[in-house]
Prior knowledge:
Elements: H1 6-17, E1 33-37, E2 45-51, E3 54-65, E4 76-83, H2 94-111, E5 128-130, E6 134-146, H3 151-164, E7 167-175, E8 184-194, E9 202-209, E10 212-215, H4 219-222, E11 227-233, E12 239-245, H5 252-286
Parallel strand pairs: 4-6
Antiparallel strand pairs: 1-2, 2-3, 3-6, 5-6, 7-8, 9-10, 9-11, 11-12
Amino acid sequence: MGALSAAEVRYIEAGIAQDLRSDGRSRTDYRSISIDTSVIPQANGSARCKVGATDVIVSVKAELGRPPPGRPTHGSLAIKIECSPTASPKFEGRGGEDLSLELSRALERSLLGGPNGAGAAIDLSCLRILDGKVCWVLYIDGLVISADGNLLDVLSIAIKAALSNTDLPKVEVVSSTATDEDPELDVNDEDTTPLDTSSVPTIITLTKVGKHYIVDATSEEESQMMSAVSIAVNRKGVIRGLTKRGGFGLEPSVLIDMLSFAQKLGQTLIPAIDLKIAAAESNKQDV
Length: 287
């Protein structure tokens, strides 16, 4: 996307000020959200999410590993996002690498919880197999195929859908002793258990353009942002993470208003997303 002309900038800003954006949406409207699951057969779970012209794919791969240090009864998550150079000219070379790292870190702050695993998006204790020795490690990989704004939110939706699509094989410990570092295990790929994703948050980014903030900003709108706040909120209205971008500061009262708005919006947005995920899973089972 090239630089906008002065007239285009004025058009965008005037539309937002009048609550009528250039694509006909109000400041609080999302573009159409599309979700498909089981898009990568080799993965334990996967999903594709499109919001407007932004298109991402997320896969979840479950592997057996060792519990994190100091947390013998937990498994772990790892998140890595890549931006395809074909998605946008700005993703070529260093620009794509920097954005990939920025997105990965923002998602980790929202989904992985604190250093001891408290507040993680899913109960990491459900990934335990043999305390102190074996657990599930979930590798979440995301790919940005097409970018037209609001990447963090779309990736969060795709991650929730991919985790909802994830089934973990049943693992039985055949033999193990106190000194056995590599216990004998029996992995049954035919007997699987789904993950509980009821607490996985959705990220809602509020982008401030002029005096107003908007949801689901397009690339053109993001190019005019003063600042943006990405708020991870779950279906109970609990805020799980916060990320700010942009060079302009925010008054405390404005930030408080943004947080309150995101919590209220989440009460309608998240159930709607959950219904789309359920419909995608139902279509998978009907195939």
